[in-house]
Design brief:
Elements (H helix, E strand, L loop, with lengths): L3 E6 L6 H13 L1 H6 L3 E6 L2 H14 L4 E4 L16 H5 L4 E4 L2 H6 L4 H13 L3 E6 L12 E4 L13 H14 L4 E5 L7 H5 L6 E4 L6 H10 L1
Parallel strand pairs: 1-2, 1-8, 2-3, 3-4, 4-5, 5-6, 6-7, 7-8
Helix pairs in contact: 1-3
This protein binds 2-phosphoglycolic acid.
C-alpha cells in the first residue's frame, strides 16, 4: 500500500488549553485513528506545546507523531532563544525546514537551510523539507519533501492537482525523492482531488489543521 503522510503545521497558533481541546477531540476518535492503515499522522505545534502534547499522546496511546517547526543551526551553547536538535529529539521525530514563511520573514536562505537539514539528521530527526516549485534546490539525502507554492498558502487557492502532481513527479523521479507531499489551502473538501495523483504522498496542512474536526476529516478523506 502507498504510504501517506498527513501533517499538521500549526504555525504560531494555539495556547495550552486550545491544544488540550484539540487532543481531546482526537482522543474521542482514538479507535478510528488506530484502524487507519498506511497513513502517518504528524502534528507540528509550536515548541511551547510539545512537552505537554508528547505526554498526552503517550498517556493515551494515540496514533499521532510529533514534529517541530524549526531547528537551531547550532548545538547546545550560548545561543539565546534557540532550541537545538538534541533538545527537539527528546520530543519529536520530524522537523519542518525551509517553509516559505521562514524563508521570507526570517531570511532563511538555501545555505542556512542546508545546515539546518544537517543538524536535524545529526539528531536523528527526519526533515520535512519545503520547496516552493520544481526548481527549488534541495540538500542531498532527504526522504520527505513538501511542495507548497507560495500563492496557495493560506489563500484558499490551492494548486491544481495535476500541476502539484507534475512537481511531485520531478522530485520523485529526477531527484530520487521518496515522498513528496502537497501543501497549500488543503481542506477536507478538496483533499480527495489530490489524493489519487500518482506522485503525491500526502499533505502538509496549515489553517485546516487547527480545527480538530476538520483535520480529522482530512485524515479520513485523504
Ligand atoms: P495552509 O498552509 O494550509 O493554511 O495553506 C499550509 C502551510 O503553510 O503549511
Amino acid at each position: 500500500m502507498k504510504e501517506f503522510f498527513i501533517i499538521a503545521n500549526w504555525k504560531s497558533h494555539k495556547t495550552l488549553p486550545e491544544a488540550k481541546a484539540w487532543l481531546e477531540f482526537m482522543l474521542s476518535k482514538k479507535e478510528a485513528l488506530a484502524k487507519i492503515e498506511g497513513k502517518t499522522i504528524i502534528v507540528c505545534p509550536p515548541t511551547t506545546l510539545l512537552s505537554y502534547m508528547k505526554s498526552f499522546i503517550l498517556e493515551h496511546d494515540l496514533s499521532i507523531l510529533l514534529g517541530a517547526q524549526d531547528i537551531s543551526l547550532f548545538d547546545e551553547g550560548a545561543y539565546t532563544g534557540e532550541v537545538n536538535g538534541k533538545q527537539l529529539a527528546e520530543l519529536v521525530e520530524y522537523v519542518i525546514i525551509g517553509h516559505s514563511e521562514r524563508r521570507s520573514y526570517f531570511h532563511e536562505d538555501y545555505e542556512l537551510l542546508k545546515q539546518k537539514t544537517e543538524k536535524a539528521k545529526q539528531s536523528s530527526l527526519t526533515p520535512i523539507f519545503c520547496v516552493q516549485g520544481d526548481d527549488t534546490p534541495i540538500p542531498d539525502g532527504l526522504s520527505l519533501i513538501a511542495y507548497e507554492p507560495v500563492s496557495a498558502i493560506g489563500t484558499g487557492k490551492p494548486d491544481s492537482p495535476e500541476h502539484a502532481n507534475d512537481v511531485a513527479r520531478v522530485y520523485r523521479e529526477e531527484k530520487e525523492m521518496y515522498y513528496c507531499l502537497y501543501g497549500g489551502s488543503v481542506t477536507a473538501e478538496n483533499v480527495a482531488t489530490f489524493k489519487n495523483q500518482e506522485f503525491i504522498s500526502g499533505f502538509l496542512v496549515g489553517s485546516a489543521s487547527l480545527d480538530a474536526a476538520k483535520f480529522f476529516s482530512i485524515i479520513i478523506n485523504a
